[in-house]
Amino acid sequence: MTEQIWYEDFVPGTVLKSAPRTITLADIDRYADLTGERHPVHMDEDFARAAGFKGRIAHGLFGLALIEGLKASLGCFERSVVASLGWDRIKFHAPLEPGDVVHLELTLVEKRPSSKPGRGIAIERGALVKADGTLVTSGDHAIVLLSSPPVAKR
């Protein structure tokens, strides 16, 4: 298992990067099927072109969901994060297109103790970035982060 980042290990300014992921038309279709959001800019090639895109584009919220999925692939918050308190400052900067190769850049922003013992509140800033450096989606995520469990005595 990947080393966990517990409350004590959360160091503001740290940047974590995920492995790359290639976006496909099948990804867009599956997201549309799952959510029921079938706006023609996502589903109709001709409509998307007429709207000024190269072709169909992914849903903005799919990009936000990718931030969470790519964060999960890092494995470092698997046991330490117990709740999402919400997203703030979400921006869709550029279209996400089939064939784009993207990765996550997750910046640990700030933390503070919680009113409950053994946990804290932390802010992480997710940025979905194309291979050429283009920022696609970004936002700040507030999480509940557990403190490191006590080491068992032997």
Structural class: alpha+beta
Low-confidence stretches: none
Radius of gyration: 18 Å
Tell me the CATH topology: Thiol Ester Dehydrase, Chain A
CATH superfamily: Hotdog Thioesterase
What general outline do the C-alpha atoms trace?
Answer: elongated
Number of strands: 6
For the record, what CATH class applies? Alpha Beta
Number of helical regions: 4
Fraction of residues in β-strands: 35-45%
H/E order of the elements?
Answer: EEHHHHEEEE
Please give the alpha-carbon distance between the first and last residues. 22 Å
Which CATH architecture?
Roll
Q: Characterize the biggest β-sheet.
A: 6 strands, antiparallel
Summed up, the domain count is 1
- Average predicted local confidence, pLDDT: 95
Helix content: 10-25%
Q: What would you note in describing this structure?
A:
- The protein is an alpha+beta fold and 154 residues long.
- The chain has a single domain, classed as Hotdog Thioesterase (Thiol Ester Dehydrase, Chain A, Roll), CATH 3.10.129.
- Helix content is 23%, strand content 35%.
- It has four helices and six strands.
- Strands 1, 2, 3, 4, 5 and 6 form a six-stranded antiparallel beta sheet that branches.
- A hairpin with a 5-residue loop joins β4 (101-113) and β5 (119-130).
- The protein is elongated, with a radius of gyration of 18 Å.
- The model has no long low-confidence stretch (mean pLDDT 95).
